[in-house]
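Example 3.2
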Amino acid sequence: MSAPTDRKFLGRLPLPERRFLADALRTETVGGVLLLVAAVAALVWANTPLSDSYEAVSDFHIGPAALGLDLSIQHWAADGLLAIFFFVAGIELKRELVAGELRDPKAAALPVIAAICGMAAPALVYALVNAVGNGSMDGWAVPTATDIAFALAVLAVIGTSLPSSLRAFLLTLAVVDDLFAILIIAVFFTSDLNFAALGGAVAGLVLFWFLLRKDVRGWYVYVPLALVIWGLMYNSGVHATIAGVAMGLMLRCTTREGEEHSPGEHIEHLVRPLSAGLAVPLFALFSAGVSISGGAIHDVFTQPVTLGVVLGLVVGKAIGIFGGTWLAARFTRAELNPELAWPDVFAVASLAGIGFTVSLLIGELAFAGDAVLTDEVKASVLIGSLIAAVLASVLLKLRVRKYQALVTAEERDEDQDGIPDIYEEDDPEYHLRMAEIYEKKAAEHRERARLAGAPRDGADRPA
């Protein structure tokens, strides 16, 4: 019996997957920059003489009380706008499961194991810190999340362009991370259930699924239905963002004959800018506004709850993802792409310690009855994410020349046919085309040289 063939880890992506990844991450990067701007604006707003107006706006209530939706602006941002974010996350997860990195169990093993270890290790670090310091265990889930938009914004700010394989690994980590964050929210942060509202939400989801199966078209059908499902889910006691995930998972993400894009990809293309450009930044604006002072920063590093969050994000994430990846690669005989090295994996693992959006949400849910501790946990998320971002930036900058060379090789298209040359190198016709291009360039060069050396009219001619 022959030995199993080693598989390539972080190898070249298929061209369609690479193109989809580039489009998705382009939007996420723009959204991440807006997220950074919103977070900074919230901190400035909350730490100036205008802080009273920040609290007044955040606590301002609006909505129909008769429907149980008389919510504060901050509440609308967390439960309403983030449902859009989780709807997109649901579509991403569905696409990964049927057409992306997670469709092949063998290929999915590494990122899934890495993501699980990258959530378990921060929770363990938090638990150890709070067990030693006699702190609260309620915040164990806060440092488990990764914010892909914030991570990409950091890459954009520091000017580092990662090879597509590392970006795909980071995105897959974030998708699996979102899945487990959704499960954590659904299981651990569900209040007393209203079974009538929950039954209505489930019935709405069944109708949503039925209409999709019957290929019913029209936003005017699905948007009102989605709002009804969201409202019922909110009133059921289950966190309302679960409704967004469920609807996202129901969309078809495979193409049929004659389709250029699946319905899921089409809708994601339409909704992602709304999520990344509006929903998440507004959530950050009304969640990240915490008081930052010398005393507050001192408390972050001295209280077990907040210290556990910081160490979970900075230490737990990096060790969990890197350790899980290394062990999985070793036991599955997956060979690392020779163009990359294990320090590259550690740098990406450190970047995954940026746990902004979902960490803030879980922090609000975990300490909902304690406003002071909630703000302290938010501050620890901000500080932990900042430290992780700085650490990852340093590590990535050490390899920036290598990354630039790899990205240049990935994007080279000398025959200008719209397909990167690296995907055609094994094609004989490609080599013929390239030979023709080089011969044409050589002929043009010889002609320019001949003209440059030819005598001008009337010059150097015999009398």
